[in-house]
């Protein structure tokens, strides 16, 4: 099993062979967060989730190709638009070793690579 945590601390796990985990969350007017998760398929519905509004929290765990290291790796990304937060971590699939880490403000174009910097010019 592999897993990740939502910004509120809830642990979400999936089988190591799963290619994708997506978690989306939204803060409600009373302050509580509602999350929905999917593992490589359709999302699991949350009873109070309102799909008309964009989620403020997104957590992704995908197996993707790393062009820098020329290998398949697990990429975990967290974005929280309310807190202007962005985190990206990459892990070796065989050893579990973290191969890359970046954390900062979601609004900072430097967090998103050269293509994002060109788009704002």
Structural class: mainly beta
Radius of gyration: 15 Å
Helix content, binned percent: under 10%
- Strand/helix succession: EEEEEEEEH
- Work out the count of structural domains: 1
Residue-averaged pLDDT, rounded? 75
What is the straight-line distance between the termini? 43 Å
State the shape. globular
Secondary structure tally, helices: 1
Q: In total, how many beta strands?
A: 8
> Which residues sit in consecutive blocks of at least 5 with pLDDT less than 50?
none
Beta-strand share of residues: over 45%
Outline the biggest β-sheet.
6 strands, antiparallel
Strand neighbour order, sheet with most strands? 4-3-5-6-7-8
Concise synopsis of the structure shown:
The chain has one helix at residues 114-119; strands spanning 2-5, 11-14, 20-27, 33-39, 57-66, 71-80, 85-92, 98-104. By secondary structure, the protein is mainly beta.
Compile the SSE list and pairings.
Layout: E1 2-5, E2 11-14, E3 20-27, E4 33-39, E5 57-66, E6 71-80, E7 85-92, E8 98-104, H1 114-119
Antiparallel strand pairs: 1-2, 3-4, 3-5, 5-6, 6-7, 7-8
Descriptive report:
The chain is mainly β and 121 residues long. It is built from one helix and eight strands. It is globular, with a radius of gyration of 15 Å. The protein starts with a strand and ends with a helix.
Sum up the structure in keywords.
121 residues; single chain; six-stranded antiparallel β-sheet
